Inverse folding.
């Protein structure tokens, strides 16, 4: 899940015009998300201490740590 934007960034940086490379990246991401949804019932990862990541995530805080 985290590496998907990196893969897109790499494809953009090398100026890939091959539709198959972009489709493979998107397809593998969707496949992994589908497997996650089927096996654990959620696409979002579980947080620590029994919390949900969506409840405690803040973009401002993430950018601050980055």
């Amino acid at each position: 899940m985290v590496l998907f934007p990196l893969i897109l960034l790499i494809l953009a940086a090398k100026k890939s015009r091959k539709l198959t490379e972009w489709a493979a990246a998107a397809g593998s991401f969707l496949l992994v998300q589908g497997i996650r949804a089927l096996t654990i019932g959620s696409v979002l990862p579980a947080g620590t201490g029994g919390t949900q990541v969506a409840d405690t995530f803040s973009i401002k805080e993430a950018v601050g740590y980055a």
The chain has a mean pLDDT of 87. The radius of gyration is 15 Å.
